[in-house]
Design a protein that fits this description.
By secondary structure, the protein is an all-alpha fold. It has helices at residues 2-23, 31-38, 44-78, 90-103, 109-131, 138-162, 165-176, 186-199, 203-209, 213-218, 223-245, 251-263, 267-291, 300-320. It has one domain (10-320): Orthogonal Bundle (ABC transporter involved in vitamin B12 uptake, BtuC).
């Protein structure tokens, strides 16, 4: 019964989170006024909702869905419940590309392209080093990603140290996760839809792989091609998410845990549920980031960390009991 109603409930939660994002901010729009805007009324409220809040809410939902889906895939791929989308250093490569673009005074499409290029470079570097002259294993991939992430972190510290003071605030906001410049949600939404379509046919094999490689091989699962597909999909999802909003933590880590407690580890249901729950959580977190200290806006990564740390500690304590 719980599994049957989970996706409809999460879909309603997604709609509610977007509606809240449209209504609340530095200027609160009352429900009758919001309903009038939805019905086609003009004026300042319509411009505020359609030109500012709706693109940002859609970008937040797309980013949260991308991170949650990538986190669920990474945890199955590495067979590690602590794996998250950033564990392989992809966010570090994207951050270096974005910071170099900011340091050069570029923005807009150049910033987006630089971040995405850095993420792809990091993905290629990690996979090449982890593969070596033989086949890679989850532990080898994990260790290579951690080392590369540490290297990117050193490069980020160097860039921040030599950057002028006028650019440091924007750089730090981007590193902490910032959706204030996410005004075009369609690329993220399209990649999210394609990611779900690509992952669902793999869900049955992922269920078998989660039980161990020996059992998966005995049941006829081609492990090596499945690893390639999962790694590439998760890496591309993470790259797009980091390009949209910078480094937003905890969404890809806690969402799969919450869903496993509720419905188990069936990837056929967990993957689409992760998209809906992750998108809803990040949309609500971004709404809080815009309203808690209004008119000043907080980085959304601060809100997700404040929400994610106690939730994750509770999950660890419950697992221990």
């Amino acid at each position: 019964m719980r599994k049957r109603f989970l996706l409809p409930c999460l879909l309603l939660l997604s709609v509610a989170s977007v509606v809240l994002a449209l209504a609340f901010g530095s200027v609160t729009i009352r429900w009758p006024e919001l309903w009038a805007v939805i019905n086609g009324a003009g004026g300042l409220n319509r411009s505020l909702v359609l030109n500012l809040r709706l693109p940002r809410a859609a970008s937040a939902f797309a980013t949260g869905g991308l991170l949650a889906l990538a986190g669920a895939l990474m945890q199955v791929l590495l067979r590690n419940p602590l794996a998250d989308p950033y564990i392989l250093g992809i966010s570090g490569g994207a951050a270096v590309g974005a910071l170099l673009s900011m340091l050069a005074g570029a923005g807009g499409a150049w910033l987006t392209g630089s971040a995405f290029g850095g993420a792809l470079l990091s993905m290629l570097l990690v996979f090449t080093l982890a593969h070596g002259h033989g086949s890679w294993t989850p532990s080898r991939l994990l260790l290579t990603g951690v080392v590369c992430a540490a290297g990117w972190g050193a490069v980020i510290s160097f860039i921040l140290a030599i950057s002028p003071d006028a650019q440091l605030r924007g750089m730090l906001f981007w590193l902490m996760g910032d959706l204030s410049h996410a005004d075009d949600p369609w690329p993220g939404l399209m990649v999210l839809a394609l990611g779900v379509v690509a992952c669902l046919p793999l869900a049955r094999n992922l269920n078998v792989l989660a039980r161990g490689e020996l059992q998966a091989s005995a049941l006829g699962v081609a492990i090596a091609p499945l690893r390639w597909q999962v790694y590439l999909i998760a890496s591309l999802l993470t790259a797009v998410a980091v390009t949209l909003a910078g480094s937003v933590g905890f969404i890809g880590l806690i969402v799969p845990h919450l869903l496993r407690l509720a419905i188990g580890n069936d990837q056929r249901l967990l993957l689409p549920a992760a998209v809906l729950l992750g998108g809803s959580l990040l949309t609500v977190a971004d709404t809080l980031a815009r309203t808690v200290a209004a008119p000043q806006q907080l980085p959304v990564g601060v809100i997700t960390a404040l929400l994610g740390v106690p939730v994750f500690l509770y999950l660890l304590q419950r697992s221990h009991r």
